[in-house]
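In the previous lecture we treated proteins in isolation. Real proteins rarely work alone, and many bind small molecules. This record shows how such a complex is specified: first the sequence, then the SMILES for pyridoxal-5'-phosphate.
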Amino acid sequence: MSALAKNYNRRKIAFKRGKGSFLYSTSGKKYLDFVQGIAVNSLGHANPYLINALNNQAKKVWHVSNAFIIPEGEKLANILKQKTFADYVMFQNSGAEATEAAIKAARRYFYSIGKPQKNRILCIKNSFHGRTLATIFASGSKKMTEGFGPKISGFDHFNFGDHKGLKKAITKKTAAIMIETVMGESGIKVIPDWCLKDLRKICNKKKILLILDEVQCGVGRSGKFFAFEYAKIKPDIVPIAKGLGGGFPIGAVLMTKKVAGAMIPGSHGSTFGGNPNACAVGLEVMKQIFKKGFLRNVEKSSKYFISELIKIQKDFPKIVKEVRGKGLLIGLQLFKDQKKFIKMLELNKLLTIKASENVVRILPPLNVRRVEINIAVKIIRKVCKKF
Ligand SMILES: *Cc1c(COP(=O)(O)O)cnc(C)c1O
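The predicted 3D structure, ligand included, written as tokens:
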């Protein structure tokens, strides 16, 4: 009997090792892993560069407090600054911590300019920003908040796609709009570029901040380093996490100079955030992702994979409702409940994971090979035939 709390409905498989896109179970089966720890292992399992980076760091220093300078963190923050909109970076350990720190930064900014009454965050109803008390109420999901009251106030909501509702929901007390550039858990719903451009304009006009949660879609997953780059806009605050450590826990909040100015010494902190091991691995992930042609290749893989999935949709129009996503954050929306479909894929040795709205979420490593995509396509087609 497991002593682990039952807050997860776990599948009955365990793995003894992984290599690239594949996982090997303790019962000797080989799986094509298109979950990758839910968009975390950006470079696949047991990547030799990441193993090296971790081993090298582990021999030197594991942990010191943020009371001291951490060179690995300085380097990682610098690369993030060089390659993105960000002027400053604040390290955390997870996605929820990063989104929560993003909320704190937005509120603190208005406090610092003498407008503390501007403290409400406007989010999409049934979005996902993590599982801390504040972030579950930010998500506005009944299921996630059930039994965890009293409600944390300070969050307002509008429905996905309801532009009028969004504009109406902005009040004098609104500090920021916080959305996922591509909504992951909620069913791989892409916010169109024109919407993002509009959002930026609205935020400028109302003098409020734009927080884009790229915890899932960021760090190359979309085919660009950030998914919002497609819209050619710049946000004010961006929390990231999942892909950044390639499997090692790390989160970060990226901020413009304007916002970061409010985060004065003592205003926020974290014991583990910016840990040398995490930053050394994160640094190596960045090195690999920014190698020439890497992101272009993610886009190519995505284009190929999605076109193959659209062929499947055309051949099985009564099973597959829609293929959607950006880069290698791909959703296959079914007409019926997707759980059985995911189980059938698993029995055929392809691992995927569900998202809301009957979506089968497909998350290969960013360095997935064409032959591996072909294996997945073949298995998905086979399952459609039997479904
Ligand atoms: C996963 C996720 C989070 C939460 O990350 P954790 O590391 O699980 O806390 C927040 N926002 C988005 C968009 C996510 O996908």
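Summary for your notes: The first strand starts at residue 15 and ends at 19. The chain is about 40% helix and 20% strand.
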